[in-house]
Write a structure and sequence with these properties.
6-stranded mixed β-sheet, about 190 residues, 3 helices, single chain
Length: about 190
């Protein structure tokens, strides 16, 4: 955010049994208070990384009650079953872009609410994930109204840079997380 020295947007990624968990957190507002809230959420995620996604959101909710709260989306990739489980509260958008061009992009269903203030009824969704698919998660500092087009074979850093460069609003904190699923590695 122009004029601010810290960002309220944070990401987190952690290997867990059978896969990986990803989170993108957007502390409400801007500046130090937003950064403090998102930092607390990351600390809770790190401490309880092995818990199911819904339990992680509940733990974060309780730990954030004295803060302004956050919007948060979580995604867990299970490499044994090739399943993506994800959930979002607020406006951190998620998309699963498929390597096969004939498959439509899957979008994360977001629930209205604020982690730390008003937690809605939670339900995680599961969907298959295939080698080469790309997971994206973005905060509201990016414009997401247009279809996301990425070069599926590009380096993942280039994909993230391209999304940020083409969709950054410039008047808010902005963060993009991009991960490519490679499948179970021998």
């Amino acid at each position: 955010m122009p004029g601010e020295t810290v960002s309220g947007d944070r990401h987190w990624a952690c290997p867990v049994a059978n896969g990986m968990i990803f989170a993108v957190i957007d502390g409400l507002g801007h500046g130090r208070a937003a950064a403090a809230a998102s930092k607390i959420a990351v600390a809770m995620l790190q401490q309880y990384a092995g818990d199911p996604l819904i339990e992680l959101l509940h733990r974060c909710h309780e730990s954030l009650r004295a803060t302004r709260g956050v919007a948060m989306s979580l995604a867990k990739v299970n490499i044994e079953d090739s399943v993506l489980t994800w959930i979002g509260v607020g406006n951190v958008e998620g998309a699963l872009l498929h390597r096969e061009p004939e498959l439509p992009c899957d979008k994360l269903l977001l629930r209205n609410g604020v982690v730390g203030s008003h937690l809605p009824t939670l339900r995680a969704e599961e969907l298959p994930i295939r080698p080469g698919d790309i997971l994206t998660m973005v905060t509201d500092g990016l414009t997401t109204g247009h279809p996301m087009r990425v070069a599926m074979d590009a380096k993942i850093e280039s994909v993230a840079d391209g999304i940020l460069a083409s969709a950054c609003k410039g008047n808010d904190d902005a963060l993009v997380l991009v991960a490519r699923y490679r499948g179970a590695q021998p």
